[in-house]
């Protein structure tokens, strides 16, 4: 499937075709980014729901999607990545709205400062692991 773009900085380096003259330059990046960011997450959510149904209703079930700030607004140089993140955020929010009452949570997570601004650098792997575990164990509080 070619190169994977997992973060904003990589996307900016890979998106020289986005210009003020025509940001909608047709490339394989749209399909590639949707496949990486959305289609694969959609398939994973489908499989998760199948697995969740096999568990007792009392067991908390959690699906975590690693996002970024792009679902909040556009950043130049990240059009195709942003399209995928927005689609995935929609899917995750819908899943959480539909299944929260059944002890199934869907989370779109990203690194943010306390004031809600993006944390482009900062939290390391252990902080991520701790937060993901708190979400899965339901000890993170009632996060949106």
UniProtKB/TrEMBL annotation:
Protein name listed in UniProt: Uncharacterized protein
């Amino acid at each position: 499937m070619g190169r994977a773009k997992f973060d904003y900085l990589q996307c900016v380096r890979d998106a020289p075709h986005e210009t003020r003259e025509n940001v909608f330059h047709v490339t394989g990046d749209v399909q590639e980014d949707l496949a990486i960011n959305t289609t694969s997450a959609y398939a994973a959510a489908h499989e998760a729901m199948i697995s969740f149904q096999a568990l007792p209703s009392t067991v908390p079930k959690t699906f975590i999607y690693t996002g970024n700030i792009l679902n909040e607004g556009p950043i130049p140089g990240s059009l195709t990545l942003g399209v995928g993140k927005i689609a995935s955020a929609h899917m995750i929010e819908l899943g959480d709205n539909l299944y929260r009452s059944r002890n199934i949570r869907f989370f779109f997570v990203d690194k943010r400062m306390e004031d809600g601004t993006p944390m482009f650098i900062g939290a390391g792997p252990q902080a991520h692991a701790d937060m993901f575990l708190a979400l899965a164990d339901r000890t993170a509080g009632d996060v949106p």
